Amino acid sequence: MKPQRTSVFSIRRKKIGLIFVREQGLDLEIWNGRSSPCWSMGVVHPERNGQISETVKVPKASRWALILPTYLCATRHIQLPASRPEEIAAMLEYEVPQLVPCQTQSWAWDFHIAGHNQDGTSQILVVLSPLSRIESAMALASAIGIEPDLVTARAALHAARLNRRKDTAGTGVSGHTHWDYDSIDFVAMDGPRLVFMRGSRTRGQNSRALHRAEAETVRSISVFREQAIDATELLIRVGGTHPEVSRLAERLGQTAPVSADRAKAPPVCDGALVKDMLRRDNAARPWRNRHAHNVCVNLLPKHRKVKNQQVRRRREYLAIGLRVCLIVLLTLLCLQIGVRRETHLLKQYRQRLAQIAPQATRLQFLQRQLNMIQAQVQGSVSMLDIIGQMYEILPQDVTIHYLSIDQNQQVVIRAQAKWLSQAFDCIDPLEQSEYLSNVRQSYAHLRELEGQILIDFELRADLQTDSHKETP
After folding, report:
1. What domain range is 173 assigned to?
2. How many CB atoms lie within 10 A of CB 375?
3. Beta-bridge partners for 107
4. Which of 216, 292, 290 is nearest to 248 (CA)?
5. What is the pLDDT of residues 370-418, one digit of tens each?
6. Phi, psi of 56 (to 5 degrees)
């Protein structure tokens, strides 16, 4: 079978960068839609190990996401009488100062809509993190030339990856534990919605670390059940990069009041994942928006969010302007092509008309002659009858050299005579003829030919076609 072709401009194939915040510094990974990162590197914090090397070269990525450990984030569950994200954000501006764990430092915060109640209120999961830790990590990333577009918790990233793989679609409430070398995260999903997350710090690979991971998972389940969420039959999927993940799944299935199994391979990261996490659409209308259940938790500082929104808005306006310009250019191009085609066709028509114009003139002349002949044939008088009678009644010295009948039944006679009196003597005989009436002379001219004087004259008369004139 031939491999299916995919567009090289597909957003799934765009490289995205993930910056994992560790105690020692940063771990950088670049994903291009495959099952493993295509590039990774660790950056040590300068306060712990001198200055950052100037030779650090990071490949380009379309977007960068800064991933905070979940244990650096605090979560709060509240209910608000609103369903639209913009309304919820406005209300939380006044609620967050009462929700922060400590008033002595600044906090970055964001929210996720965990559900909707029948009375119109919304269940909100508020995520908070110390602003100083975020600024410190972003400063370290900026030192190597990286400006993150998204700041989120590792548990939120894991929930978004599960949604991308559709592991939670239609499964009810489920729990997911992700155990790494230095932390363990617990995520609860109600279908595609993130309803709970909690993280704790763990170290080492011995039995003590396994016992601590088990205890923290059980504690996370207890805290989760205190949120008044129905989770009597909770299925826990355990995954992660720690080598003791399988043993943790076995022990949870034996000791905890839940059923546990080993999770599948972790879902891949692609460009669409970070793009969906940056998009906060109207979650109150999932039937109108396919992005309504995206896990959108962005802890980027507010001033940076505003700056990114302005940049994104300028790009959108620029894209709209480019589209409008392209449409106008295409319209002008179509008009120009149409005008050129019309001009070319008119030129061809003129050339063709110029070729057939003499023939048309000739045809018009022949048509007139044909109409004249047809009129004479249909009439009761023929040309031979008129000529024969003229030769009978006109004097012998008068010579007729032109005779015509037009469409108005006007007869024109041009003749020659030797004397001027003969030109006037022709009028009375023609008046008495059977076919002519109202005979009148148009002109008479003297002309000398070979020593003789000749009279050229023209007579006009009306043709009688209905019936012969009665002779007295």
Report:
1. 168-263
2. 14
3. 130
4. 216
5. 877 776 666 556 677 778 888 888 888 888 888 888 777 888 888 888 8
6. -70, 120
